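Narrative of activities, Objective 1.

The group set out to show that a structural description can be obtained from nothing but a protein's sequence at a throughput compatible with the screening campaign. Below is one input-output pair from the validation batch, recorded exactly as produced.
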Amino acid sequence: MRTTVEAMAAVFGGTQSLHTNSFDEAIALPTPFSARIARNTQLIIQEETGIPHVADPWAGSYMMETLTKELYEEALKIINEVEDLGGMTDAIVSGMPKMRIEESAARRQAKIDSGFETIVGVNKFRLKEEVQNFDVLKIDNTEVRRKQIERINKVKATRDSAACQKALDALTSAAMSGQGNLMELSVEAAKLRATVGEISMALEKVYGRHVAKDSIVRGAYAKESTEKSGDTGKIEYEEALQRVKDFSKLEGRNPRILVAKMGQDGHDRGAKVIASGFADLGFDVDVGGLFQTPEEVARLAIDNDVHVVGASSLAAGHNTLIPALKKALAELGGDHIVLVAGGVIPA
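Output recorded for this entry:
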């Protein structure tokens, strides 16, 4: 239902490209059933509503024109700020865009958690007993990984290795000299069956690897929880804060949590929101880098002497990554560490 509203808003605004999420994407990869509903949402807007027949349906609307003007003015402030930093590349290196996104996400999550912002079925109008009445796509992550490795090995065994390496060397040379089109050379390497990893490594030899700043937004979650959530939100926040203080007094130190991203999930905004919330509640928070293995997360947890590991991964990835993390923690003497994945403590 939300996707329908969002899709209509996009079409009203003149979007040139539209993607509609399936209803089960928050918990798994889409099934053919859910994907068809998402696709048909677009078709209904296109074929039944008549909205696309008008170039600008909201033209002249005071509300829409005012919102558009406000959006333009606020966006221009950010664009000018980016320009003052030297452009988008320099802004990314400074970490400014990522921090702004994470701050915004932390503020919104605080509003949702405190009930200030309504999410129907999540923090308002919930059923006493939620029943999942739809199938969830189940994926054997171990089997998928095995097949991918098998496929890559087959590609490497059947390609012209000499020609492929020559293309990769040309890519590295161009990056080093500053002469040549790196995209064109990358495409040529790909045509000769170089893997994405090999192409990346060819450039990494010259440029190194970008490491995102792992700083945590502080204060945004607390501010929204106490200033805009009303008395109920303030009381809940203060109660949680007191429980953390009681723990710290009992243990002689603050509770410490490691928020970790495992597997091939290149998004950490949600993890950063969680980290921000815990930090504002008085936790000592460690944030792991992207694409970590279970063994790397376990070692980081032991080295930092954490009480809890909050692990996040792609859909279905937890089926193999969480058991592997439990095993790695046990081997390092970390059986006492509480492991939480997606809000569930594994047995």
